[in-house]
Amino acid sequence: TTVRSLLMTGQPGVKWTRPQLWRAIRLLAIADSNEGVPYDVFLWSVFRGDEAALRSMKESALIHIVLQELQPDLNKSARRFRVCPGSPLFGEIYRRLVLHDGLAAVFDLEVAKEDVKREQTTLDSYEADLVRLQEVDDVRREKWRVLDDPNKALQKRKEQLLRLILEQHSKLEKYHENRRQAHAVLTSKDKKFRTIAPED
To answer: 85: which strand partners?
Structure first.
């Protein structure tokens, strides 16, 4: 199908990526076909807030944005949007792709690797900042330099970085678990194939 080809090769000139398309498919496949996914949930879960990429996917006709019916007590400024598959046919294709556990695991693995890379980059930056702050402390102690810090700003910043590092570790573990699960599915299928495959 066209969607499957886009998952494999992408589409030239668009602002969305293949992993983002798979995230969108996964999300839309579990949503009610008539209700779709709330716009803000879709925007963050799929695109990390990148509206240009969302609009690009809409222009590719893979998704459709509709206005939710306004409640009587809400004015127009409170209108809410939701995201649905580009067509009922696409909606059915999305559901079938997700049910194909082997193919789904391939794309899940790619998404998990992207997630791990993103969060690892953030973690590395936090750890590098912490090392730099620690070096300031080390120099001060070794060379008996006095650095006025009446509000303990340096210490507070280090404590903040330690909390952020802990948060990143939790995120990384979640994405590594997704990676392990996808890898386990593919490994299981590979073993099964090799068991039934005729020997030379």
So the answer is: 63
**CA pair distance 158, 148, nearest whole angstrom:** 16
d(CA 96, CA 101): 10
Is residue 153 within 8 A of residue 136, CB to CB? The reply is no
How many C-beta atoms surround the C-beta of residue 22 within 10 A? 23
Question: What average pLDDT is seen over the chain?
Answer: 89
Q: pLDDT tens across 56-65, in order?
A: 999 999 999 9
Q: How far apart are the first and last CA of the chain?
A: 34
Whole-model pTM: value is 0.83
Using the structure block, give the residue that is written with the tokens 């695991």: 105
Q: What is the largest distance, in Å, between two alpha-carbon atoms of the chain?
A: 77
pLDDT at 1: 54
Q: What is the distance between the alpha carbons of residues 94 and 62, in angstroms, rounded to a whole number? A: 10
